[in-house]
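Please review this one.

:::
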Amino acid sequence: MRRISEGVTGRVFRLVVGLMVVAVLWSCATSPTGVSKTAVPDQSVWAEDAESGGFTYVPLSIWFPATIEHLEIEGTTEYDEDGLDVSVGYNSTENDMWLTFYVYLKEYYPHADLRSHFESLVGDVLSEWTQSELASAHNVGFNFGETHVDGYFAIFRYGKGPTPGAWGGFATLFPYGDFYVYLRTSFLGIDDQSAIDAAWGITDRFLIELDLPDPGV
């Protein structure tokens, strides 16, 4: 079982309680060219289980169940021809919430360290939502079996939606062997502490249920 390091959820909740939202715009990094190739197994990038409806991401042997609690898999996307830059989307059947799991080679950003790459991703979110604001950002730790990695976590307030309330979200980035994993969670109710707690709980359980293989093995 993979779990975010002890004490992170408490820090997240303390950071969100009584939000004093500040707009922080980090500059975006441009994608490099001339990315070297990595061998992909001689089969489809995705192996679907017809009975359960889930998928295995073959290059890293990551299993994506069809459902995790009330999240249902929406589909998979490949952003490069080698299938080394992909995403898997989930939508909630109970709440106004969606979650997208991205995994891609670090070599796509060879000139950016982890922090710089995260700042680039934060800038993308702020550009995507024109009224968005960064509420907080900080370091976060992850454990995968015997392997510990340090990543980053951010909370956003996107702005008003078509329904009552305001949209918000989480962004999480961590290194995973030769890859980066980037997780986006978006939900309605960023001004409601109970909605924040619920969305974070679902995000945390998603990572646990995904049961990512140890990248050090």
Q: What stands out?
A: The chain is about 20% helix and 40% strand. Residues 193-210 form the longest helix (18 residues). The radius of gyration is 17 Å. The CA atoms of residues 25 and 127 lie 9 Å apart.
